[in-house]
Specification:
With about 425 residues, this protein is an all-alpha fold. It has 17 helices and no strands. It has two domains: about 190 residues, MFS general substrate transporter like domains (Growth Hormone, Chain: A, Up-down Bundle), CATH 1.20.1250; about 200 residues, MFS general substrate transporter like domains (Growth Hormone, Chain: A, Up-down Bundle), CATH 1.20.1250. Helix 6 packs across helix 14.
Amino acid sequence: MRRRLPPALRERDFALLWSAVLAMRFAEQMLAVAVGWQVYSIHRNPLDLGLIGLAEFLPLPLLALPAGQLADRLPRKLIAAFALLLNAGVASALVVVTLHGARSVWPFFALAASTGVASAIGWPAFGALTPELVPTELLPGAMALRSIAGQAAVVVGPAAGGFLFAARPELVYVVAACLFGVALVALLALRRRASVSEVVGEGPPGFESLIAGVRFVLRTRMLLGAIALDLFAVLFGGATALLPVFARSILHVGPVGLGVLRTAPAAGALVAAVILARRPLRFPAGPTLIAVVGAFGVSMIVFGVSRWLPVSLAALAVGGFVDMISVNIRSTTVALITPNELRGRVNAVEMVFVSASNELGAFESGVIAALIGTVTAVVAGGAATVAVALSWTRLFPALSRMGRLEDLRPEPVSAEVT
C-alpha cells in the first residue's frame, strides 16, 4: 500500500505536514461558510461580508515581514503550531458567540482579525517547512500534493460546513476546532529539529535583516518575475468576485448554479494538482509559466463571452487547471531558489503578493464591472492577462529562459542575512 503513495508522501515527516495542512484547510473552509452565513444574517448587509475579509487582510501587511523574520530565527514547527493553536482558539470562541445568539457583528470582526494574525504568523513557517522535509528531487511533487490538500478542502469543505451548520450552528465550529487540534498534533509529531540555519546571527535583528526577503526577491529577477506574473494574472484575470452576477443576471442559473460555478475552478485545479503530484513538470518551467498564464487569460475571455452554462463551467475549470500549474511552478521556484536561512522572509513576501492579488483583484473586478459592465470587465481583464504574459519574455528574460524545476538551485546569499 505504501508503495502506491506518491514518493513525497512516503517521507514520514512530510506525510504528517500534509495531513496537518489538509485538516487545517478543511477547518478554514468550513469556518468561512458558517461565518459568512451568520454575519450576513445579522443585518442582511453585504458590506459586513466585505468587512470580514478586510479584517482578515489587515494584519498581513503589518505582520508579514516580522513573521518572516521570526520563521528564520526560531523553530518553524513551533511557530506554525502557535498559529494552529490561535486558530483553534478562534473556532472555540465562535462556539461561545453562537451559543449566545450571534446578534452583533463586532465579535466576528474581532475574531476575523485574529484569524488574519494567525495566517500572517503561520504562513511563512508552513511554507518554509516543506523544502526541509523532502529531498530536492521530490519537491515539485510535494508542492503539488500540498495543493491537492488545499483544493480538496475548497471542493468539499464548504459543503461539509453547510451540512453541519444546518444540523446545529455551533457544531461546525466544534468540528473545526477539532480539525485544528488534529493538525496541531500532526505538526508536533514531526521529528525534525531546528537546524542551525534557523537561528541567524546573534542578538535582536536589525532593519536590514527584516527586509532581507524583499531585497532577495528584488535582486533575483527570475523569482521576481514568477511572483509578479502570478499577481497580475489574478489581479486582472480573476472573475470569482463577479460569479454571483453571472449566475443571477447573465447565465440565469440561480444559487445552485452559483455553487457549481464556484466549484468548477477548484475541480480543475484539483485535477492539475493530482497530475503534477504523479508526474512533475518535465518542460522548461519559465516558458511553461508564461504559457499557462496566457491560457488563463484566454479561459477568462471565453467565460466572459459565454451564455451557456456548460461552456462557462469548462472555461472556469480550464482556468483552475492552468492556474494550478502556475501556482506549482511559482511555489516550487520560491522553495528551490531561496536559501534555507531566508525562506521564512521570502515566503512572507510571496504571501503579501498572493494575498494582495486576491483581495485587490476582487476589488478591481467590482470597480471595473461597475464602470464598464460585468462582461466587458471580465473580457478586458482576460485580454490584459494575455498581454502581460506576452510582455513578460521581454521584461523578465531570466524567467523566460528558466529551465526545468529539478535543475534549480539556491541563489547565493550576499549581505541580506545580518
